[in-house]
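SDR family NAD(P)-dependent oxidoreductase structure dump, as promised
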Amino acid sequence: MRDFADKVAVITGGASGVGRAIGARLVREGARVVLADINQQALDEAVAAIGAAAGLTVDVTKEASVDALAASVYGRFGAAHLVFNNAGVGLGEAKREIWTLPLNDWRWGIDVNVLGVVHGIKAFVPRMLASGDEGVVINTSSSNGGLRSLPNTPIYAATKAAVTSISEVLYQQLLRAGDKVRAAVLFPGPNTVNTAIMASNLVRPADYVGDTPPDAVAYRTMQDLVKTTGLNIALTEPEEVADFAVEGLRAGRFWLLPESEKGDEMLRLRTENILLRADPQSAW
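structure tokens r here:
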């Protein structure tokens, strides 16, 4: 898809961070952007700030809510050409062992980061195929989990591993369905992206509250994460991710993965370890 003018783009998690930045970039490209988010106040502010065509509330953990989003988009615009299943949460799991993590943390992470993608696929793909229009479904993964798993964020890494797998399967199945709709998977980066995802625990819905108090999280900003984990790297801004994602879509890529010397080397080592049947690198 080389031209985004007049295309309808739907972005979950669109009120902030990477979602909002992608929306702003696509507005500049002439697209009709629909931002979807659970946070109404942030959604209203984002729509006004970037000039989006619409802002619609959605709870991606609920299948009916995402289906209602799709119905509203098609009812108002008659199409959806770009669907970004982008909503995600951070759990603040660092400094805790995987066997101590509460089940409510797992449920929340999986319901948002994994089922949110599944609900988006179920709601939009049948409509996109039926329309006969060119389209792309873009799922937001992460190099953490989606390509290699860091030990300090077990739930997040597990959910993003699932997103990568789902995206690869979706790509293959859409190829069998024809050549109009395809899939892509986005890995924000190349460095840790400067978003507010680590503050997710502070606004956790009531359905998932009860196991982990807000003050139990190890960090609340990406600056805290970098400092806590000793990554010692510069942060990538959401606008950089948006520019890379849009140019990758223009080029027709499935792997929306920015180049990174360190990241590429870690991925290469992991792949070689698998081929050699060797143990995971302890540094990961």
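The mean pLDDT is 89.
lmk if u need the other ones
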